[in-house]
Specification:
By secondary structure, this protein is of the alpha+beta class. 45% of the residues lie in helices and 13% in strands. It has seven helices and three strands; from the N terminus they run αβααβαααβα. A three-stranded antiparallel β-sheet has the order 1-3-2, with helices on one face.
């Protein structure tokens, strides 16, 4: 729907709690929760923020469906957008304190995945793979994203959503065939 109402070259600004900062990553690892030690994992008791049937039949689910920068990026690409700029918010002190301890592991694991995927994916030419994987690597190792409390991502519409699917190639050769 955003693609339909945005002009070519137009901007879409998306903001969300930053599920890609170090604090959120560790919290999710430990308890699948947004904040370790202070919140339970998303559930039907604590995660429904608004359900007033006298006002509306709509239910607001709060932070049940939070996503990080990588999924936000790919959803944007699949909808015909590219990231124009990530606007940074204030840093979370817990993430800043955890950064020196975990950053080497984050960087190294992203680097290994980057190198492996450049070699592995034969469906696309080298230039296309580098463009995509470079962006993913930079987002995954960005100190500002790893420490920021919120994500504010400015997308630019680069194509109509109907054009996007024509450029995609299936990774599963047998999918859809008998």
């Amino acid at each position: 729907e955003f693609n339909r109402i945005t002009k070519q070259g137009g901007s879409l600004l998306v903001t969300t709690p930053n599920y890609s900062n170090i604090r959120a990553k560790i919290s999710y690892l430990l308890s699948e929760s947004e904040r370790f030690n202070s919140m339970m994992a998303p559930n039907e008791l604590d995660s429904i923020w608004m359900s007033k049937h006298d006002i509306s039949d709509e239910i607001y689910y709060g932070h049940i469906f939070l996503i990080g920068i990588q999924k936000l990026r790919v959803y944007g690409r699949l909808a015909g957008y590219k990231i124009k700029k990530v606007h940074f918010t204030r840093a979370k002190s817990t993430s800043v304190l955890l950064l020196p301890l975990f950053y080497p592991f984050i960087y190294f694991s992203n680097w290994i995945a980057y190198r492996n995927n450049l070699r592995k994916n034969k469906n696309y030419d080298e230039e296309t793979k580098r463009e995509v994987y470079d962006e993913i690597f930079k987002l995954g190792t960005s100190i500002k994203i790893l420490t920021s409390g919120d994500l504010m991502v400015e997308f630019e519409k680069i194509k109509n959503s109907t054009e996007v699917g024509k450029e995609l190639k299936s990774q599963h050769k047998e999918f859809g065939t008998t």
